[in-house]
Amino acid sequence: MRVAVIGSGLGGLSAAVTLAARGYQVVVFDKNPWLGGKAAVLEEKGFRFDMGPTILIRPSVLRKVFAEAGRRLEDYLTLVHLDPQWRCFFDDGSVLDLLDDTAAMSAALDRRKPGIGQGFTDFMRLSQELHRISDRFFFWKSVDSMKDTFRIQGAFDAAVLKDVMRMRLGKTVGGTIREFIKDERVAQMLDHYTQYVGSSPDASPAILCAIGHMQSEEGIWYPMGGTRAVPEALVRLGRELGVEYRPSCEVARLTLHGGRVAGLVTEAGESLPFDAVVSNEDAVRTYRELIGGSIARRFDKRRTYEPACSGVVLYLGLNRRYEHLAHHDFVFSRDPHEEFHHIYELGEPAPDPTCYLASTSRTEPATAPAGGDALYVLVHTPYLRPHHDWAKMLPEYRQVILNKLKRTAGMEDLESRIVFERALTPEDIHARYKVLNGAIYGLSSHGRWSGAFKPGNASSEVEGLFLAGGAAHPGPGMPMVLMSGWIAADTLDQKFRGAEAAGRGGLRESA
Ligand SMILES: Cc1cc2nc3c(=O)[nH]c(=O)nc-3n(C[C@H](O)[C@H](O)[C@H](O)COP(=O)(O)OP(=O)(O)OC[C@H]3O[C@@H](n4cnc5c(N)ncnc54)[C@H](O)[C@@H]3O)c2cc1C
Predict the structure, then answer these.
(1) What is the pLDDT confidence band of residue 498, given thresholds at 50, 70 and 90?
(2) Cα 12 to ligand 1 centroid, rounded to whole Å
(3) Which of 272, 267, 310 is nearest to 290 (CA)?
């Protein structure tokens, strides 16, 4: 059986490896000349930057994808553990390290303000509970809505009811954090777990507090060679399993026959038959652009698809290293409410933003010439609105970002230390990765009740179409899209085998 994977983001690569390991013939298409989607690399003048994701949590998800093929992740990738997880620079001049160990973190918080350590311990206990519930209801299976989670779970038994009560339905991440944490700066730090999904903590459902435990349980890891080493490892494994890769080949549309996938047509006009397709293109754009017509209209009517936030990245090649930085740093805004109000409600860049920094040369010196640093600076911005023109907006906003780093992170001589510079804007992200309105993290998680739900991995509109990536279940971020690819492949496999066992000759004849 031949399966096409449209897009070689981490979700697409994970689906391709899983399918190939289970015996399917797989061809991966990507419009870009490189494989890996947003996990791209910029290498120039002796500096090497990861262009997109830099924080890798839950390597066990990646390990599971490799285990599908009976391989050990360690034979393909060298991972280095980073603790502290993040160093936090606050606007009041204080600095705080987020540590792996909850007891050590709680003690550090008590040194900051006596009494707040217990609140943190209690919050992390809740986070662990919500993580367990997420494992039970959402992860490793295709889920499209609240109704789905209970259908899959079977009878509505007492244990399910208990878990539902514990999900804090109707409450937000921001509100939940503040119930436990009586220090606005520490609360601001924890708010930033929802920045992993590009959504406002004040509008995201409390279940996303689970991210804290998802991060602390396994810690943060750096792949030697940069995040880029992750797609490289997946592609290497895929090649060993017989996956065919076709970079620089954009898919123009799907061909359907009787409401089922029959193949695809490339931009160059090549028409190719396939038995099934896994689309790693943004889920909404898959329907609108690769399918269109009444099917796309039906998909659009099912719910509102709000893009997650976008971002500006500055790649700064420096002729010095700032020794007071950790590998991952957050330089926080003066006021999280003002910041999130601008990004998520007004749809305008925040006047005083939070900057995330990756200073990779302290873990891998080869990323910069001796004594220098390849400093990566990411600032979240709203998803693209019609009036945004980043060619005009970037120079002024670049200065806002540099001023913030000089003022709040003690990098006073930053501007005179820049010897190489490139930038990525929301418009670049939109064009490079074919996402919705320049969104970095797929669809937003806004909505107190159903914000955690994304389109499921098996299309309910088109037989033989499966979805993987940041805009599909279970959502964005490296571990989630890798899981998304695995779920899409597993669901396809189960449907195919089910249809075969029923004597209907695979997906094509299945009802
Ligand atoms: C600046 C930035 C920072 C980030 N930081 C982090 C982080 O620190 N940690 C983390 O976990 N996550 C982070 N993320 C998010 C993470 O990168 C994404 O969630 C994840 O990589 C997206 O994977 P994906 O499978 O959705 O595919 P994508 O990476 O979006 O790739 C999709 C691919 O499909 C291709 N494609 C689309 N349409 C077609 C078509 N019609 N034909 C052929 N090819 C097509 C595109 O060219 C693209 O290569 C960051 C993202 C960005 C941009």
Answers:
(1) confident
(2) 10
(3) 267
Identify which of 489, 18, 496 has the alpha carbon closest to the alpha carbon of residue 234.
Answer: 18
Average pLDDT over residues 319-341: 97
Write the DSSP assignment of 301-323 as a string of letters.
Answer: HHS---B--EEEEEEEEESS--T
Ligand 1 geometric centre to CA of 101 (Å): 30
Backbone angles phi, psi at 203, to 5 degrees: -125, 0
3-state secondary structure of 2: strand
Q: Note the pLDDT of residue 507.
A: 56
pLDDT at res. 436: 97
Cα-to-centroid distance, 197 and ligand 1 (Å): 13
Kindly give the number of the ligand 1 atom that is closest to the alpha carbon of 485. 25
Lowest-confidence region among 325-329, 341-345, 500-504, 506-510: 506-510
Q: What is the pLDDT of residue 451?
A: 82
Q: What is the pLDDT of residues 74-109, one digit of tens each?
A: 999 999 999 999 999 999 999 999 999 999 999 999
CA distance 212 to 178: 14
Q: What is residue 152's predicted lDDT score, i.e. its pLDDT? A: 61
In this prediction, residue 159 has a pLDDT band, given cuts at 50, 70 and 90, of confident
Residue to mutate, 8, 28, 38, ligand 1, most ligand atoms under 8 Å from C-beta? 38
Ligand 1 mean position, distance from CA 231 (Å): 11
pLDDT value, residue 45: 97
Calculate how far, in angstroms, residue 365's C-alpha sits from the geometric centre of ligand 1. 26
Nearest residue (by CA) to ligand 1, atom 5, is 53
234 close to ligand 1 (CB < 6 Angstrom): no
Whose Cα sits closest to atom 37 in ligand 1? 281
Domain parsing of the chain, residue ranges: 2-37+228-303+453-509, 103-211
Helix (H) or strand (E) holding 57: strand 56-57
Instruction: Identify which of 288, 303, 323, 317 has the alpha carbon closest to the alpha carbon of residue 450.
Output: 303
The beta strand positions in 63-164, using DSSP E, are 79-82, 86-89, 95-98
> Is the beta carbon of 490 within 6 A of some atom in ligand 1?
no
CA of residue 318 to ligand 1 center, whole Å: 27
Neighbours of 34 (CB within 10 A): 16
| Per-residue pLDDT at 329 | 98
Which residue owns the Cα nearest ligand 1 atom 16?
477
More confident residue, 137 or 280: 280
Task: Give the architecture-level CATH label for domain 2-37+228-303+453-509.
Answer: 3-Layer(bba) Sandwich (3.50)
Residues whose CB is less than 8 angstroms from the CB of residue 413 and which lie 6 or more positions away in sequence, other chains included: 320
Ligand 1, atom 50, lies closest to the CA of 53
Mean of all residue pLDDT scores within the chain: 94
pTM: 0.96
CA distance 287 to 279: 10
